Q: What sequence folds into this?
């Protein structure tokens, strides 16, 4: 089974009871096996919430990561039906493992209606995804020269294909890299066709929105969340869904980091489709705690 087919399967939650769902974890071949990937919990929680709303569409969600998820056991999602109004509905989702909450999220739903329309324009001069190389297409000798953590991150199987516009700079990331502006642009899409289900496309976007974003907080300091000098973890995550989208077509993730202080960094993202429509906005604060280098062998 392909990674994207496995992701679709992961997002098809088991129904345990009314408002109670169970999500499974990916196979051993996937990344993030020491703990559950935050994007997976975001996506599964959104699926659970969507299963309890009939006519309205999710337009915003605000989440907190409380504890690292255990990849060895399923996650139970409890949905609270906070409100069902004429135009809006609200849900609260709690993800539970070992009898403790590991994640909480509020989701707002809105019935589509006509209104004002404007957006920030997509940046100009960004090369199309066909002109941006994938790490999987690079020569083996170049991949072999990379730090193992960086090479493994960019070449292992994943359900979402990533093409950073500044790929070579990202490949240099590790414990030390040339400092750059706290900005990056990444093309991404599901690595295969998805069923024609708008709710599933929103969930896959939620999954992908947690990828690469926290890295934007470290590049200005010449370090990376892929090295061993930074302890990194998502702390919270906000996602606004503005317009209909296709997660299996290329989307441009325009990211920046306006602030880092102490051991926390803030990152923001705007997600555009190929036509330049702004389909989503993201904000996330994460732990970026410097740690001492390991002792020399």
A:
């Amino acid at each position: 089974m392909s990674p994207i087919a496995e992701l679709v399967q992961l997002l098809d939650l088991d129904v345990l009871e009314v408002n109670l769902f169970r999500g499974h974890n990916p196979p051993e071949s996937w990344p993030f096996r020491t703990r559950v990937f935050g994007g997976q919990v975001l996506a599964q929680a959104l699926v659970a919430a969507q299963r309890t709303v009939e006519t309205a569409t999710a337009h915003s969600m605000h989440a907190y990561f409380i504890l690292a998820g255990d990849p060895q056991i399923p996650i139970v999602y409890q949905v609270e039906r906070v409100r069902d109004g004429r135009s809006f509905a609200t849900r609260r989702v709690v993800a539970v493992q070992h009898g403790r909450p590991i994640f909480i999220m509020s989701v707002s739903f809105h019935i589509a209606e006509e209104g004002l329309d404007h957006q920030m324009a997509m940046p100009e001069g960004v090369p199309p995804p066909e002109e941006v190389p994938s790490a999987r297409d690079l020569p083996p000798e170049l991949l072999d020269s990379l730090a193992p953590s960086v090479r493994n991150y960019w070449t292992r199987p994943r359900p979402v294909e990533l093409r950073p516009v500044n790929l070579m700079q990202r490949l240099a990331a590790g414990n030390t890299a040339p400092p750059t502006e706290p900005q990056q642009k990444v093309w991404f899409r599901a690595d295969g066709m998805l069923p024609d289900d708008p709710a599933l496309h929103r969930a896959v976007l939620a999954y992908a929105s947690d990828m690469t974003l926290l890295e934007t907080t470290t590049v200005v300091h010449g370090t990376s969340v892929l090295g061993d000098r930074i302890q990194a973890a998502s702390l919270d995550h906000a996602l606004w869904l503005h317009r209909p989208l296709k997660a299996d077509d290329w989307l441009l993730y325009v990211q920046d980091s306006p602030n880092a202080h102490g051991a926390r960094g803030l990152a923001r993202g705007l997600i555009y489709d190929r036509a330049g429509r702004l389909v989503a906005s993201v904000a996330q604060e994460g732990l970026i705690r410097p740690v001492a280098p390991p002792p020399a062998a």
User: Anything to note?
Assistant: The two ends are 40 Å apart (CA to CA). Residues 122 and 277 are 8 Å apart (CA to CA).
